[in-house]
Amino acid sequence: MASESGTLTSSEYISHHLTNLTFGKLPAGTTRYDGSVVGEGGTWTFAHGTEAADMGFWAINVDTMFWSIALGLMFVWMFQKVAKSVTDGVPGNTQNFVESIIEFIDENVKSIFHHKNDLIAPLSLTIFVWIFLMNAMDLVPVDWIPFVASEMGISYMKVVPTTDVNATLGMALSVFGLIIYYSVKEKGVGGFLAELSLQPLGKWMLPFNLFLELVGLFAKPVSLALRLFGNMYAGEMIFILIALMPFWIQWILSVPWAIFHILVITLQAFIFMVLTIVYMAMAHDHH
Amino acid sequence: MNINLTIIGQAIAFAIFVIFCMKYVWPPITAALAERKKKIAEGLDAADRAERDLQLAKEKAAADMRQSKEEAAAIIEQANKRANQIIDEAKDQAREEAERVKASAQAEIEQEANRAKEALRAQVAVLAVAGAEKILEASIDEQAHAQLVEKLAAEL
């Protein structure tokens, strides 16, 4: 919220909240936010304002990475702690909690995925819990963490990693990689190509089939990434808009929206997981 | 909304978490769950078996009870019979004893009577002789008449 310029207009406030903390190399000749021009050889720095766009691909969103890894570590730490002291006798509270999640995931995987693959269940567990935790950052009031960060001299801080398309796309592309890997592994290169080109209309319509199937194939990771991103981005945007209202009226809107969002964050994590399992099952199935 | 290296960073972090999960989280917990499932199944099984055993034991106890009741009844009946028998035997013995006593008493009485007769007879002879002496007032040769007197006495 607080920035160098002091007071912010509404649009500045919104765009500030939607800007990642990006670290990258500004190419030589770029005009910086303060009017200075980057000298010979470029400069490695944190982006201000729209500078992230100038950095191109070789930049990294530090806040996204930090929060996602921190939440991921929290997840594996908690689950591994339970796994280490797991007992088949009477479970403690944490174990009970973890077990209920694991059984929930296991049920879903078993009902959708009927092949033998030891990766799918842990993959689904990671997707569900990790995305849930990242989404849940949405429920932290929008100004708290950015305020603390700005007090520490960090000017941008977007705390919900899933509102960064890079994060969702990173996961979706990993899933896409697994789709390709298992399709080829289960059916062979020929089998996979046949599946892409010889249906639904038979070999005489091969180009048409190929086009159709390729669109379908690439739509999988894109829809996976954009669905999660879009939902979380929109939700975050509404929280930010609510935060622009006078403080005494905010809760009337933000409390219902937050309660509704509890459903959304769980649902989005669940959808991502279920679609991943479905795609994995499709990759294993022979058509 | 810039696509940048974060994609790869996320993919790497994702892969690491998934692999960690696959190695250290999922297997032990699911193994424990399966183990617990087995334990519960065994426990339920044992409970069923125990219930069945209990049922059998109850039936056996009831049967034993019935049998011992029957046995007890038989024993009592037998005892009653034996008691009656003993009483009958005792009665018979008593009767026999009584008869024996009576018989011996009768025999004794007869003996006494005979003895008395004998004594009477001897005295009758003497009396008769004395009477005859008196009647005849004469001395009779005792020797000559003894035979006669004795014959008389025997006829008495």
Structure description:
- The complex is a heterodimer of chains A (287) and B (156).
- Chain A contains 9 helices and 3 strands, in the order H-E-E-H-E-H-H-H-H-H-H-H.
- Chain A has one domain (62-284).
- Chain A has a 3-stranded antiparallel sheet with strand order 2-1-3.
- Chain A has helices spanning 10-17, 51-55, 62-84, 93-112, 120-136, 144-151, 165-197, 206-243, 247-284, and strands at 22-26, 43-46, 59-61.
- Chain B is mostly helical.
- Chain B has one domain (6-155).
- Helices cover 93% and strands 0% of the residues of chain B.
- Chain B contains 2 helices and no strands.
- Chain B has helices at 6-136, 142-155.
- In chain B, helix 1 packs across helix 2 (142-155).
- The termini of chain B are far apart.
Written as H for each helix and E for each strand, in order along the chain, the element string of chain A is HEEHEHHHHHHH
Which outline of chain A best applies?
globular
| Counted beta strands of chain A | 3
Low-confidence stretches of chain B: none
How far the N terminus sits from the C terminus of chain B, by CA atoms, comes to: 173 Å
Number of discrete domains of chain A: 1
Biggest interface pair, counts: A-B, 51 and 31 residues
Q: How much strand of chain B?
A: under 5%
Mean pLDDT of chain A: 89
Major sheet details of chain A: 3 strands, antiparallel
Helix count of chain A? Answer: 9
Head-to-tail CA distance between termini of chain A:
54 Å
- Estimated helix fraction of chain B: over 70%
Number of strands of chain B: 0
Number of domains of chain B: 1
How much of the sequence lies in strands of chain A comes to: under 5%
| Helical coverage of chain A, percent range | 55-70%
Report the uncertain regions of chain A: 1-5
Average pLDDT figure of chain B: 90
What is the helix tally of chain B? 2
